[in-house]
Write a structure and sequence with these properties.
Elements (H helix, E strand, L loop, with lengths): L4 H19 L9 E5 L10 E2 L1 E4 L3 H13 L3 H16 L6 E10 L3 H9 L1 E8 L2 E11 L5 H13 L7 E14 L2
Antiparallel strand pairs: 1-2, 1-5, 3-4, 4-7, 5-6, 6-7
Length: 180
């Protein structure tokens, strides 16, 4: 049975994220960072680190929030986050949506430009594998489950994170994708 581009991409992202957590202490690997271009193929900013979000993220979000609120010690918080994410978090690709999120500072020019465009071209590449696709761009509000998951995930690794952030969601348009 052939998997869809969406399934192949999410399975690949889960493998890369497992390697990031287990072998690189959570440091984002290149395949987690998207090269961003406008619709005409012009780069519109630095590579952005994205997150993949569970289709139903509330349980994971509760765990992320618990880790953040449990301690103010950044090392302890990071250790707990790595322990959680290295266990079964990325084990089941089918549990994840193909929607991606990214967190930006509240003053981010790149986020503003992406919101104004409403779409972009994303390219992910690592280990000889490349996924390139057009994606819609929407700004999430704090009451959105994907906003909460993204915020609390990032907060586990950044104790100084404030809620004055912009979180964008990227919706892949797989019919416009280019795969090897």
């Amino acid at each position: 049975m052939t998997s869809s581009p969406s399934d192949a991409f999410i399975a690949w992202q889960c493998r890369i994220r497992q390697m990031s957590i287990r072998d690189h202490a959570g440091q984002p690997l290149d395949g987690m960072k998207a090269r961003v271009e406008d619709g005409a193929g012009e780069p519109i900013g630095e590579a952005i680190t994205t997150l993949i979000i569970h289709q139903e993220p509330e349980e994971a979000t509760d765990l992320f929030r618990h880790i953040v609120k449990k301690t103010h010690d950044p090392k302890s918080r990071r250790d707990e986050a790595l322990k959680l994410l290295s266990s079964t978090h990325y084990q089941y690709p089918k549990d994840f949506s193909d929607r991606l999120t990214a967190l930006f500072s509240g003053e981010s020019e790149l986020a503003g430009r992406l919101i104004a465009l409403g779409h972009c071209q994303l390219t992910f590449s690592q280990f000889g594998q490349t996924f390139e696709f057009r994606a819609s761009v929407t700004q999430l509000s704090p009451d959105d489950a994907a906003w909460q998951a993204t915020f609390w995930h990032n907060h586990m690794f950044n104790p100084a994170l404030s809620e004055a952030v912009v979180i964008l969601q990227f919706g892949p348009q797989w019919s416009d994708q280019n795969l090897p």
